[in-house]
Amino acid sequence: MDIARKIEEITGIALGELRGEDELRLILKRRLTKKEYKIFFLSLEGEEREAIREKTLLCEERYVELEKRISQKLKSDKTRSELLRTEQGSI
């Protein structure tokens, strides 16, 4: 799965409207904490929930909380506007 599809799965933004992969990585790195970023990309790579928890050293409650925060941040108006491709070009 690519970054755009994962973001679409979480937010519902249409694929054609999002920026390129490299730009999306930079935006996510800026908007998410290190743990959130790591969780996002490990899940993108197809890692199972338990494997992600072990790699990030998180208990179940904290993992669920961070998943919710990732979703909230990606759905926020400020982040969504950054993720969307504008007519004027790049960032």
What does this structure look like?
The chain has helices spanning 3-11, 21-31, 34-44, 49-56, 60-75, 77-83. With 91 residues, the chain is an all-alpha fold. α3 packs antiparallel against α4. The longest helix is centred in the C-terminal third of the chain and has 16 residues, at 60-75. The radius of gyration is 13 Å and the shape is globular. The two termini are 24 Å apart. The relative contact order is 0.19.
What brief labels describe this structure?
mainly alpha; 91 residues; globular
| Total count of strands | 0
Rg, Å, rounded: 13 Å
Class by alpha and beta content: mainly alpha
Name the helicity range. Answer: 55-70%
Mean pLDDT across the residues is: 89
Low-confidence stretches: none
What separation lies between the terminal Cα atoms? 24 Å
Series of secondary-structure elements, N-terminal to C-terminal: HHHHHH
